Amino acid sequence: MNSRLLKGNAAEAVAALKRELAKDILILGSGALVGALMRDNLVDEWVLLMHPLVLGSGRRLFAGDIPRTALSLVNSTATPNGVLIATFHPVATG
């Protein structure tokens, strides 16, 4: 796997990278970065892992000025230990 340090505006750098590459770009564990990319419609697929654990409180995954995004479930799998892996695509709006 190759990594590349992107500099400057995150959304502009990722948009340029998407134009350059014919491969998927994967982001692990950065709600702040994903939020910045959501504002410019740069997220094509969401893979969320939901663990069978209720904490009762905590930070929201996307808080603040993150735009509301409708998602369509395209695949889901439950692991033997109860983790649900759900894949979503954004729903095109009009």
Folded structure, characterized:
With 94 residues, this protein is α+β, with helices and mostly antiparallel strands. The protein has a 3-stranded antiparallel β-sheet, with no helix packed on it. It has one domain (10-90): 3-Layer(aba) Sandwich (Dihydrofolate Reductase, subunit A), CATH 3.40.430.10. 1% of the residues are buried. Helices cover 20% and strands 21% of the residues. The mean pLDDT is 84. The protein contains 2 helices and 3 strands, in the order H-H-E-E-E.
Computed Rg: 15 Å
CATH class: Alpha Beta
Please report the total strand number as a whole number.
3
* Distance between the amino and carboxyl termini: 36 Å
Percent of residues in helices comes to 10-25%
Oligomer: single chain
Arithmetic mean pLDDT:
84
Q: What is the overall silhouette? A: globular
Write a concise synopsis of the structure shown.
The chain is built from two helices and three strands, in the order ααβββ. It is α+β, with helices and mostly antiparallel strands and 94 residues long.
List keywords for this structure.
about 90 residues; alpha+beta; Dihydrofolate Reductase, subunit A; 3 strands
List the helices and strands and how they pair.
Blueprint: H1 10-20, H2 31-38, E1 46-50, E2 71-78, E3 84-90
Antiparallel strand pairs: 1-3, 2-3
